[in-house]
Specification:
- The structure holds three protein chains of three kinds.
- Chain A is of the alpha/beta class.
- Chain A has two domains: about 180 residues, Thiamin diphosphate (ThDP)-binding fold, Pyr/PP domains (Rossmann fold), CATH 3.40.50; about 130 residues, Rossmann fold (3-Layer(aba) Sandwich).
- Chain A is about 35% helix and about 20% strand.
- In chain A, the strands form three sheets. In chain A, strands 3-2-4-5-7-6-12 form a seven-stranded mixed sheet, sandwiched between helices. A five-stranded mixed sheet of chain A has the order 9-11-10-13-14, sandwiched between helices.
- The longest helix of chain A has 18 residues.
- Chain A is globular and about 60 Å long.
- The N and C termini of chain A lie far apart (about 40 Å).
- Chain B is of the alpha+beta class.
- In chain B, strands 10, 13, 16, 17, 18, 19 and 20 form a seven-stranded mixed sheet that branches. Chain B has a four-stranded antiparallel sheet with strand order 1-8-6-3, with no helix packed on it.
- The longest helix of chain B is centred in the first third of the chain and has 17 residues.
- Chain B is elongated and about 105 Å long.
- Chain C is α/β, with parallel strands linked by helices.
- In chain C, helix 5 crosses helix 13.
- At the A-C interface, helix 3, helix 4 and helix 5 of A face helix 6 and helix 7 of C.
């Protein structure tokens, strides 16, 4: 174990896999000479050369499409999106091609491509650069959607993504890049997809979340414990597709109350899917409707105060927990 | 000979309409010559002959809707003869259509029936489902749930958990004040609820049933305590330590129901058939009475097979009604009659008298009011059913005559404790005293 | 139709022209034509669902290029893809079964007409989003070079695909990577004059389509797409060159489709019957057949035996497709992803 930042954990995962497998390569805008806008790829061009660390034109469809073609021929390309907001430009390549070609070919090709990059709000980037996309991608069969909340998971899940045989949308929280945590050094350390974890044990309310909102939920849980004596059990989903809700069901069976927390807009979001599944599966265990904490249903504004109003915070989680506890406050 | 068919002209086209024929049967036609005009959902167009020859049968008259691929006519090559008439698979019921009617006689036009096309689509879907897709139904069936007695006086708001707890505790939601939003009854309301000290002189509520449990075959490892209980009890009373619990039931309603049922032609039931079903259903709530003792484990049985004691000239035998909890009273009646006949004629096959998981012995027909049965190993319980007798009973401070019946349960104490025996008889009461539950 | 004056024309060396291979190419083109006619018939009968785009009239473009390839080369195309599969060697009966939606189809009945796929024969797919597959093909070409092979990728697309963003992104990246010898991709513009119903003149600001590709530093050439001698001649030279250089190349084949855009394109209001008739005089099968007759003494009887063979192949394919079972219901859930979570370490 060593203490690493989320950013370094991602770089370590990619470099370890590039050392391990010559078929792994990375491409993206300004990832080579410029070393990446978030400096995730610092040092990689120098180490691996231009054929494996490819600076692409500003052309997301071209970048993803060529990566899908490479993957179909046996390479394992990683595509870095400068931000995931730009990946929308490549939606046809991701949703109509990467996600479908295995199926309509009757299983004749693997598509081991990883599309990764930062997302999320918080630094006044306004409407086009502050979005989160897990609900959007997780809607489609044929791709996997990963949203790690810790440095260790960022590393272990990215390695699983690179080693797999399917297209993966790997969503990094820009706000977590500097977060530090213990990360295993073993080059064979991986974290499997579809295995949620209990991030904090508790008996009163279940909180289900992932990525940055998971960290925020943990802070809210500590406050609730100290100030109110309410013990929250916090579930980290890690991957949204495949989605493992078993620990959430078990937890709700114990606590009988549930709050789901996501950063993005409420309508048709991941929280809606999770809440519906919980209601379908452990209906009789619920003592209150499943509550959702989400961002406001507006494009992200620029002004600092408005941006703060548009995003979820600890106090929203705390209020939702009290609401499902039928506690006033 | 070549068929002229209704062509599919677009990806969504399923049928087309014949507008008019340019040629009549017997006319010579040349390749490329227009034969008829058709109308599709998008266009009107002429169909041309695909070969030289003579127009044979015209199977679809003007105005008729024809499915894609349906034969409109045939073209006979030189020297060919027409085959017996074939009828186009018309979208309309073509049988009544007079295929000889003149092409322009405008036969009754049939509007495309929406319901038909829906039926058709479910028909295809039905076929696909018939292929038994393993995951077509992806919602797991809910665990067996006993219907809640409907609260009177409108719907009370309550959380799912509160309802479940009320069911388990036999508490009626009607008596509870909800503390949640809009008066929603929540778990804490049930937990804090204290029943009124003296039951009011209301009609007694139908007692709530304990929850039905999932039946499955499983071994429950013997705990140290269970081993000690078994050993001690066996030492004191022989290989199977028996104990007995007795209850008296009001079966007035049951006897009335049986009479009503027997009025239906073809149904002949005895009181015992109702008891068999009641006993089997009650087992679902208390799987541990449907069990066997072993040296290392108690085996709970995943199915309910009721042995019925039948006396024969040679002695007692217990033919078995298998899965009695899944059978209707009338099915049980028919089966018991057939088994009893076979027993008396010594024609029972081993599989018809082995494998019971629970036994019922009924001496009511002999006028016996109460007796105790000896457990039929490896069962752990037997019900001894007495005769129903009319007795004066006090209800609402009035003396009324009711039919009463005594049931004694013999239990293997190694497996069944006194409380369980009592609970089982209480559950049995719910079924016997509200006999509609037996025919639901 | 676009001018053809600058197109390469075939110079005929009788010895080469009469090599047995040309009879094989004629057989292949006739098979493709009869196959496509059968697909139209079966569509009209309701046996084939969805969209159906047939290739009749363009056979020389598929056969002229694909017969110049060797095993290991790979091919991507759009949704007018039956001919490419057949020319690459996919079994006609498995292609027909795919169109019928049967389990024996090349894509197990899950792709249909637009998504034929036969990796064993180098066929990496028919794709249904106009222009979308160009980027895939460029990436695949990069992979072939990355893996240090001399294989090449071929990517077919129509004139209508040249106005969408992915065309430009793919061309630019291919031209860029080609500078390092890392993108041996042969782009084939099947210029049949129409993007669905919109003519080249009405959809492209610049009607010299090859010139638009040259803007991306890619060498181009125009060829008469009805003359298989010409197409094959260019292909032989270009393919050899690309294996050495690892650079992209683009051939614009001027061709014409005799059928509608799709099976539902009945009225064809965008072109006259006369125009279609005129082009039928330049039927690629007729051109090849006449030339083999004039120079190599191919007789009517020879042609008839090829026709009979093609008819029986196609009839057998239809019968096979008809008699094959539809996919199992379980197939619904297969091939969505390779690995369902939780994913276990398997290395």
């Amino acid at each position: 174990m060593s203490e690493k930042s989320y950013r370094d954990a991602i770089r370590d995962a990619m470099m370890e896999e590039m050392d391990r497998d010559p078929n792994v390569l990375i491409m993206g805008e300004d990832i080579g000479v410029y070393e990446g806008t978030f400096r995730i790829t610092a040092g990689m061009l120098k180490k691996y050369g231009g054929k494996r660390v490819i600076d692409t034109p500003i052309a997301e469809a071209g970048m993803v499409g060529t990566a899908v073609g490479m993957a179909m021929l046996g390479l394992r390309p990683i595509v870095e999106m400068m931000t995931m907001n730009f990946a929308i430009v490549a939606a046809d390549q991701i949703l109509n091609h990467a996600a479908k070609v295995r199926y309509f070919s009757g299983g004749q090709v693997d598509v081991p491509v990883v599309i990764r990059g930062p997302q999320g709000a918080g630094v006044q980037l306004s409407a086009q650069h502050s979005q989160t996309f897990e609900s959007f991608y997780a809607h489609f069969p044929g791709i996997k959607v990963v949203a790690p909340a810790t440095p260790a998971d960022a590393k272990g899940l990215l390695k699983t993504s690179i080693r797999g045989r399917d297209p993966v949308i790997f969503l990094e929280s820009a706000a977590l890049y500097g977060m530090k945590g213990e990360v295993p050094d073993d080059p064979n350390f991986t974290v499997p997809f579809g295995v949620s974890r209990v991030a904090r044990e508790g008996s009163d309310v279940t909180i289900v979340s992932y990525s940055r909102m998971l960290q925020m939920s943990l802070i809210a849980a500590e406050k609730l414990s100290q100030d109110e004596g309410i013990e929250c059990e916090v579930i980290d989903l890690r991957t949204l597709r495949p989605l493992d809700l078993e620990p959430a069901y078990a937890s709700v069976t114990k606590t009988h109350r549930c709050v789901v927390v996501q950063e993005q807009w409420k309508p048709f979001g991941a929280a809606a899917e999770i809440a519906a599944s919980i209601t379908e599966t452990v209906f009789d265990e619920l003592d209150a409707p499943v509550a959702r904490v989400t961002g406001e249903d507006v494009p992200m504004p620029y002004a600092r105060n408005l941006e703060l109003l548009a995003t979820p915070h600890e106090q929203h989680v705390i209020a939702a927990v009290k609401k499902v506890m039928y506690a006033n406050g | 000979m070549a068929d002229v068919i209704m062509p599919k002209m677009g990806d969504a086209m399923t049928e087309g309409k014949v507008i008019r024929w340019y040629k009549n049967a017997g006319d010579a036609v040349k390749k490329g010559e227009p034969l008829l005009e058709i109308e599709t959902d998008k266009v009107n167009l002429d169909l041309e002959a695909e070969q030289d020859g003579t127009l044979g049968d015209v199977a679809a008259a003007a105005g008729q809707m024809v499915e894609v691929g349906g034969v409109l006519a045939t073209i006979l090559a030189e020297g060919e003869k027409a085959e017996p008439k074939r009828v186009a698979p018309a979208a309309a019921p073509a049988k009544e259509q007079d295929s000889k009617s003149a092409p322009d006689s405008a036969p009754s036009r049939r509007a495309i029936d929406k319901k038909d096309s829906i039926k058709k689509s479910t028909g295809e879907y039905g076929e696909a489902i018939d292929m038994k897709a393993p995951r077509i139904d992806r919602t797991a069936p809910a665990a067996n749930v006993v219907a809640m007695p409907q609260a009177e006086g409108g719907r009370r708001r309550s959380s799912p958990l509160a309802r479940k707890m009320a069911r388990d505790m036999g508490v009626s939601l009607e008596e509870i004040q909800g503390s949640g939003p809009g008066g929603r009854i929540v778990a804490s309301d049930i937990k804090n609820f204290k029943p009124a000290a003296a039951p009011q002189s209301q009609k007694p509520k139908a007692p709530a049933l304990p929850p039905v449990q999932q039946l499955e075959t499983k071994d429950i490892p013997l705990s140290a305590m269970r081993r000690t209980i078994a050993k001690r009890l066996a030492e004191s009373t022989g290989p199977i330590p028996h104990f007995y619990v007795t209850a008296e039931y009001d079966v007035t309603n049951l006897l009335a129901l049986r009479e009503q049922l027997n009025e239906i032609e073809g149904i002949k039931t005895s009181v015992n058939d109702f008891i068999v079903r009641a006993a089997a259903l009650a087992i679902r709530h208390h799987p541990n009475v449907n069990a066997s003792w072993g040296d290392d484990a108690i085996t709970q049985h995943g199915e309910v097979h009721i042995g019925i004691a039948v006396s024969t000239p040679e002695g007692l035998i217990t033919p078995v009604v298998r899965n009695a909890d899944e059978k209707s009273v009338s099915d049980i009646a028919a089966e018991v009659r057939s088994l009893a006949d076979k027993a008396k004629n010594r024609k029972l096959m081993p599989n018809e008298y082995q494998g019971s998981t629970f036994t019922i012995s009924n001496l009511g027909a002999w006028g016996i009011e109460q007796f105790t049965g000896i457990i039929n190993p490896p069962n752990v319980a037997i019900l001894a059913i007495g005769a129903a007798t009319a007795q004066p009973v006090v209800i609402d401070r009035q003396v009324v005559i009711r039919d009463r019946m005594k049931v004694t349960m013999s239990c293997d104490h190694r497996v069944v404790d006194g409380a369980l025996g009592a609970e089982y008889l209480r559950t049995l009461r719910s079924y016997l005293e509200q006999p509609l539950r037996l025919v639901l | 139709m676009a001018k053809t004056k600058e197109q390469a024309s075939s110079t005929i060396d009788p010895a080469a022209a009469c090599a047995p291979e040309w009879t094989e190419i004629l057989r292949q083109m006739i098979l493709i034509r009869r196959f496509e006619e059968a697909t139209e018939r079966e569509f009209r009968k309701g046996k084939i669902g969805g969209y159906l785009h047939v290739y009749s009239g363009q056979e020389a473009v598929a056969s002229g290029i694909i017969t110049a390839l060797t095993k290991g080369d790979i091919l991507f195309t759009g949704y007018r893809d039956h001919a490419h599969a057949l020319a690459l060697g996919s079994e006609p009966r498995r292609v027909m079964a795919e169109l019928f939606g049967k389990s024996t189809g090349v894509s197990k009945g899950k792709g249909g007409s637009m998504h034929l796929f036969d990796v064993e024969h180098g066929f990496y797919g028919g794709y249904g989003i106009v222009g979308g597959h160009l980027t895939l093909a460029a990436g695949a070409a990069y992979a072939l070079r990355y893996q240090q092979t001399e294989r090449i990728a071929v990517c077919y697309f129509g004139d209508g695909a040249m106005n969408i963003g992915s065309f430009h992104e793919a061309m630019n990246m291919a031209g860029l990577w080609g500078k390092d010898g890392m993108c041996p991709i042969l782009f084939i513009i099947e210029n049949n004059g129409y993007a669905m119903g919109t003519s080249v003149e009405r959809h492209s600001a610049l009607t010299d389509l090859a010139q638009r590709v040259r803007a991306y530093n890619i060498q181009t050439e125009k060829v008469d797409g009805q003359d298989v001698f010409a197409v094959r001649g260019v292909a032989d030279r270009v393919v050899r060159q690309m294996r050495e250089t690892g650079k992209p190349y683009c051939i614009e084949a001027i061709t014409y489709r005799f059928s509608g855009h799709g099976a539902a394109d009945i009225l064809q209001p965008y072109r006259s019957k006369d125009e279609v008739e005129e082009h039928r005089h330049r039927d690629p099968i007729g051109i090849l057949r006449n030339r083999l007759g004039e120079i190599c003494g191919l007789t009517d009887a020879d042609v008839k035996s090829i026709e009979d063979w093609a008819a029986s192949e196609v009839a057998a394919a239809v019968q096979f497709a008809e008699e094959s079972a539809p996919p199992e219901a379980e197939e619904l859930w297969r091939d969505i992803v390779a690995e369902h979570g939780p994913v276990r370490e398997n290395e």
